[in-house]
Amino acid sequence: MERVKIGYMTEKGYVEEEVTFEEFSLEEAEYNEDQELNWEKLEDVISANSLFRSAVDIAADAHRETKRLDIASIHSWPEFKTDWKMTCVKVLGKKICTKTPQLFTRMCHRKVYAELSYPSNFTDKVKSDIIDCAVIAASAAVAAAIATGAAGAAPAFEVSFKGCALAKIGDLVKDVRINVNSDASCGGWTPR
Predict the structure, then answer these.
(1) Where are the domains of the chain?
(2) Is the Cβ–Cβ distance between 71 and 157 less than 8 Å?
(3) Cβ(33)–Cβ(71) under 8 Å?
(4) Are 6 and 19 in contact (CB under 8 A)?
(5) pLDDT tens profile 75-106
(6) Is the pLDDT of residue 24 over 50?
(7) What pLDDT does 111 receive?
(8) How many Å apart are CA 182 and CA 187, to the nearest integer?
(9) pLDDT (average), residues 113-126
(10) What's CA 111's distance to the chain center, in Å?
């Protein structure tokens, strides 16, 4: 078994710890004595490799800053769904049952936001340029969301942001990660 040192950021600051990583060869994991695939050993290999990759990902993200930019907040966003219910009627004294659709509605409060992650060693000027481009891109995302619905917001933000950032910070834009997403808090479904 091999000990691997990883570091990551927590709310209390940067933390380093050692984790155990047992390296398996794929040849060991593939077949048992009957030349059948040894699933248990293969799962161990996959699990160990996943742990190692997770540790590497955590260490890589330790020296990054993440900023969240709220793009839009939409109150009273309607949502609809149809469920099937069993409905029975009497016809000529016989009970006939069939599934019928029933419409349900609810209202939600939806927030659209962008998360920007970049290396913490960027200069303050570069960080400021990233935020400026994000604000410009947010305007494009809102316009796209109005014109095409929520699905158009993410691509519009990314294209606008990358164009602006490429002009302002050049090749450093490749180190900036963008995630456009939305959250919703909704009431209960009401039958109509």
Answers:
(1) 2-62, 65-79+109-191
(2) yes
(3) no
(4) yes
(5) 888 899 999 999 999 999 999 999 999 999 99
(6) no
(7) 84
(8) 17
(9) 90
(10) 15
